[in-house]
Fold this sequence. Notes:
The complex is a heterodimer.
Chain A: H1 2-31, H2 39-52, H3 67-72, H4 75-78, H5 83-105, H6 110-121, H7 124-131, H8 136-151, H9 155-168, H10 176-183, H11 197-205, H12 210-234, H13 236-247, H14 260-265, H15 272-294, H16 298-311, H17 321-325, H18 328-331, H19 339-366, H20 371-394
Helix pairs in contact in A: 1-5, 1-6, 1-7, 5-6, 5-7, 5-8, 8-9, 9-12, 12-13, 15-16, 16-20, 19-20
Chain B: H1 2-37, E1 40-46, E2 51-59, E3 68-76, E4 80-81, H2 84-90, E5 97-100, E6 116-121, E7 131-140, E8 152-157, E9 161-166, E10 180-184, E11 192-197, E12 207-212, H3 219-243
Antiparallel strand pairs in B: 1-2, 2-7, 3-6, 3-9, 4-7, 5-6, 8-12, 9-11, 10-11
Amino acid sequence: LMKNGKKHVLFTASFAIRLALVAYGDYQDRTMVVKYTDxxxxxxxxxxxFITEGQSPYNRSTYRYTPLLAWMLTPNIYVSxxxxxxxxxxxxxxxxxxxxxxxxxxxxxxxxARRVSSLWLLNPLPxxxxxxxxxxxxxxxxxxxxxxxxxxxxxxxxxxxxxLSVHMKIYPITYALPIALMLRTQETRSxxxxxxxxxxxxxxxxxxNQKLFLFASVAGGVFCMLTALFYYMYGWEFLHETYLYHLTxxxxxxxxxxxxxxxxxxxxxxxxQWLGLAAFLPQLILLLVASWAFHSDLVFCCFLHTxxxxxxxxxxxxxxxxxxxxxLPLVLPHLRLSxxxxxxxxxxxxxxxxxWLGPAYFLEFEGHNTFLLIWLAGLLFLIINSSILIQIxxxxxxxxxxxxxxxx
Amino acid sequence: xxxELFSVLAFLSRCHCLTEKVEKNENTCGLLKQLLESxxxxxxxxxxxxxxxxxxxVELSPGELSGVRALLLHRWPRxxxxxxxxxxxxxxxSDWQILVDSAIDLExxxxxxxxxxxxVYPTPDGPAPRLIKVTIPIHGRYHxxxxxxxxxxxxxxxxxxxxxxxxxxTQLKDLEPHTVVDAPCTxxxxxxxxxxxxxxxxxQGPVSLQFPVGDGSLVTPVCGGxxxxxxxxxxxxxxxxxxxxxx
Lengths: 408, 247
């Protein structure tokens, strides 16, 4: 009973702090010149306003999300401007709850699970992001929900949540590979692992089983249904702004990506298509290797997938970090790192960002030509991210046969 | 006889009315002419980097200003842009209103963008104030990388044109050498009026902004270095992931 009490205190406190931040943000917006609320929140609200007037949300320029988000935020216009932020902080706390549940399912004691969940619930970064009006917490909740259902073997629900998360943002599509590898029939190796034509055919055949078929059809069905519905409502613009823009995006303005300067200098040359492809190859190779190496531990595999995807992407902004930070608490309890090593890696990660932010500030706000420094800082950040991921992979102690404890 | 006297008097009075009207017209147009001749306009650029502020100060010469409307017309090059959403949020804090003539793409690089025109109405509802001070926030676009070793590119901002009009003066052609320009009457762009443009003073030439630009001559080492580092990181990470794979 006391364990339950402490858990309730944690969740109540984290919700209360976020509520206070939203209230403070409202005060700052009204009184100071520098606004607390992120520009994205105004983009969402404007798009929701267009919907209430019966028009397309894509009339709002730079609205590059699913119409579902604008639909969910229509109470911003009918009820109060602060509804969206309330929704985001609720999803944020819900993400914390899902982290707790997944940790318990993976065999952790209640106290340890609570301590690790507090790394997300009492973390200023997700608090700040949600209270400023970014919608990342919705996606975090969907991805964590998918993983929880997969761990608990509720395939139907996992497939629905997975289809929904891919609809909202494209990057969870990368999870399809480890999910497929996990759900296929695990064949017994009887021929000593030697490559044979039969074993190749058997490998392909192992993907055709009932569980995988069910998952693929439900997830695919949800995704196709939503896509068809919004295509019918908003046409080509929906497809372009929500998906195609992100896939073909060649934002040449400075960002954390190591490819930024290369893409800027070659933006108009005939090599730009080939270079784009060359930039995609390391991402692809790493995702394939990660899927094959860790598909039996889906949570760890998804964390690696997202971290690799973000670090090796052609465009990388700080918003993307939240995509894998919400999965980090699930991985932490199984890391055989000392506290000193862990804090050291964390500081290294922050240092990498700081080294990039310096020359970027001088370029944007002081007008110095620091392009070379930004490029080098981007490469350094990639090296730091790779080193941190190597340390995580090397010190990961996988769970033995998952204990399915009763979830309170 | 009385009839003839009466008709002559009527004719004379009409003449008198007409001349009075012409005189009044000449008076207000003369007022406008006087304003145009002794008004000063200056431009300065504040802040550094990619986000600047263009401050235009206009001092209308002493005179009767009731009924006179002023309009600042900026012609912007394609190397800069204004953020319509930022301008909309500024509307609450300032008394001037701005009209942009075309949709602005916020992300396209300079060589793919085009110039645009903005109309600033210092006091949309009332007569022009004696001193007009308008601050417009602008942002620099990314430019094409240079191939001749130059690290900065220049973007020239021309001084704005001051347009004046008044309801009472309709014979604008009399105000030579000041030219007549057509522009929207109000910020909502519902109608077009004829305005008189102030002739530029010689000393207010275009202001030059410097924006940093990438070095195109380094394209080979940059591409080579980037691909080398990414491939090494990819190889190292793959090796460790394969070594610690969970069977």
